[in-house]
Amino acid sequence: MTHFTLTLTLLFIFLASCSAPASPAGTADSLILASTTILADIAQNVAGKRVHVQSLLPVGVDPHSFQPAPQDLVRMSEADLLIFNGAGYESFQRILVENSEGKGQVVEAAAGSSSGSEAPDPHMWLDPNLVVTYVENIREGLTHFDPDGAADFKSNADAYVAELTALDVWIVEQVNQIPPEKRLLVTNHEALGYFAERYDFTIVGTVVESFSADASPSAQQMATLIDQIKASGAPAIFLDASDNATLAEQIAAETGVRVVTDLHLESLTGGAPAATYIDMMKHNVTLIVNALK
Asked: Given 117, 152, 170, which residue is the final one in a domain?
């Protein structure tokens, strides 16, 4: 354990021991805390009007690199229910889980939606079909927390799954505008694997060969990606709005491709174009389709 992690862990324990008693289940004062804005939106659709779900991370913050400050640890310690993605996505996942064990207040939304490999791609939400698993895990967590709301949570979850199914149908219709041989994706980091698998895209390569945008590519990796882009004919590099575009722009200068910088993969926006998870997916798909068709 690093000194930084140990410090945060001890601080978390201290804050948890000093926190106020948990609010009664299902009350207006209940604190349901999701790690990201995307998870908060998904969870709110399941919670409905019964409880309010807040996001630990603000809009635009990358969960890969986020390290909780003392005030964030206070919010965690005061939460009646914590919802996180899991699969190694949140950099503070171990701190969150280790200090919440046995309290019955943690939901790992992605549990059961991946192959369970040692280093899975954590970006499951970029396939709406996998979000159905998120919804079920969150519904179970909310029901455990607030048994009296079980019927409401089930009704809300069923309605939201229907929306996710409709979203999947819409994405298939949009992607069908792109000839199969042109469904080529170059991304900043390894985020669109599940999306590509579901909608029959080929991942040509990534600027950063990692599930996190924090990693740095070597000169050899950059040269290899340039060769891959030239050989495949991929016309664009797709970046999350929060990504540093410097390396992508260098590769674009070498290959003549365009750089699409306004995808939203890790966070919602504080309004259009990605105010909700479904809005986010439609926005991303529209950008990808327009760049490739």
From this structure: 170
| Number of Cα atoms under 13 Å in the Cβ half of residue 206 | 20
Q: Which amino acid is at 159?
A: A
* Domain count of the fold of the chain: 2
* Judgement on whether residues 122 and 248 belong to the same structural domain of the protein: no
The C-alpha atoms of residue 23 and residue 110 are separated, in whole angstroms, by: 26
- Same domain? For 100 and 226 the reply is no
CATH code of the domain containing 216: 3.40.50.1980
Q: Please choose, from the candidates 161, 148, 139, the residue with its C-alpha nearest in 3D space to the C-alpha of residue 81.
A: 139
Work out the number of other CB atoms within 10 angstroms of the CB of residue 1: 11
- State how beta strands 202-206 and 81-84 pair: unpaired
Query: Model confidence over 13-59: pLDDT tens digits?
Result: 444 444 444 455 666 678 999 999 999 999 999 999 999 999 999 99
Whether residue 181 is found in the same domain as residue 278 = yes
Q: Report the 10 Å Cβ neighbour count for 69.
A: 11
**pTM of the predicted structure, to 2 decimals:** 0.87
Instruction: Give the domain extent around 215.
Output: 176-292
E strand map for the chain: 32-34, 53-55, 81-84, 106-108, 184-187, 202-206, 236-240, 258-263
Residue 263 φ/ψ, nearest 5 degrees:
-75, 155
Q: What are phi and psi of 258, to 5 degrees?
A: -95, 160
Cα 130 from chain centre: 12
Reported as a single tens digit per residue, the pLDDT across 125-154 is 999 999 999 999 999 999 999 999 999 999
For residues 141 and 51, membership in a common domain is answered with yes
Angle of helix 37-47 relative to helix 277-292, nearest 10 degrees?
A: 130
* 207 and 242 assigned to the same domain: yes
